[in-house]
Write a structure and sequence with these properties.
The protein is built from no helices and eleven strands. The protein has about 120 residues and is mainly β. A hairpin with a 4-residue loop joins strand 5 and strand 6.
Length: about 120
C-alpha cells in the first residue's frame, strides 16, 4: 500500500514561517498533490494543490501567504507557509490523487500558531 511521508509541523509564533513536505511514490501515476487542513470543529479545507500539469490552486484564506511547490522528480510536494496566523492552526494533511482515481492521504501534521 502506498504511503505518504510527511514532515515539518510544530509550533510557530504569529507572523512566523514554516515548511511542510510530503513524499510520495511512483510519480508516473500522480495526477495531483496537495495539502488540506482541518481545525477542530471546522470542515476540512484545501490549503493548496498542484496538478501534474503544474496547475496550482490555493484556498482563499492562504492566498498570498502560502506557496506550494514540487521537487524535480515530482514525488515531493512542499508547502511554504509565511505570515502565519493563529487561525492557520490545524492538522495539515497531504493528499495525492492518482491517475487511477484513487486518493491517498497522509496521517496529518499538527501546525500550531501561538505566541
Amino acid at each position: 500500500q502506498a504511503q505518504l511521508v510527511e514532515s515539518g509541523g510544530g509550533t510557530v509564533p504569529p507572523g512566523g514561517s514554516m515548511r511542510l513536505s510530503c513524499q510520495a511514490s511512483d510519480a508516473s501515476t500522480i495526477n495531483a498533490m496537495g495539502w488540506f487542513r482541518q481545525a477542530p470543529g471546522r470542515q476540512r479545507e484545501l490549503a493548496a494543490s498542484i496538478t501534474r500539469f503544474d496547475r496550482i490552486n490555493y484556498g482563499d484564506s492562504v492566498k498570498g501567504r502560502f506557496v506550494i511547490s514540487r521537487n524535480s522528480a515530482k514525488t515531493t510536494v512542499f508547502l511554504q507557509m509565511n505570515n502565519l496566523r493563529p487561525d492557520d492552526t490545524a492538522v495539515y494533511l497531504c493528499s495525492v490523487g492518482r491517475t487511477t482515481g484513487q486518493m491517498e492521504w497522509g496521517q496529518g501534521i499538527q501546525v500550531t500558531v501561538s505566541s
